[in-house]
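User: Teach me something about this protein's shape.
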Amino acid sequence: MNTTLRNLVLLPLLAAAGSAPCQPAEPQFSLTISSQDVNVKAGSSVRITISLRNTSGHDQPISWAHGAPEATFDISVVESGGRPAAKTRSHSEARGEGPNAGGGAISWVIGSLKPGAELNEQTMIERLYDISKPGNYIVRATYRNGRAAPIAQSNSITLTVKP
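Assistant: First, the predicted structure itself:
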């Protein structure tokens, strides 16, 4: 078989093999948020717990800001109408945004999480977002581990703030 004919036969086979759907990678982490107080009075504190679990069968490298979950996790709060809740100054500083970016001292820890192990952190939502107005607020968290694309996204919880 001459080279041109062989290439004409092999080219469609290679193209088909390259376009075959890839199996999605198994999730390496699960991320869960929870709160004991989802119905609160305006002006009250709302503590959430953020749990990152290694769901893989091997140690997973992770990095986190010790004692500063708002720096480790992207925590978002959206009002019931779909509009993002207003961020507080504490949120902006913790995330390295705004005029005071990088001004705080955060201790970053680099390590690994064993299979089935969890990293648990807590934070107060009202420190990060203005949830002083009555209404429903949807809270979610994302873990990126220094990457642009999310590695894990949490469930959502709905906070009901009453007058």
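Now, about its shape. DSSP finds four helices and ten strands in the chain. The chain has one domain: 26-162. If you'd like, I can walk through any region in more detail.
User: That's plenty for now, thanks!
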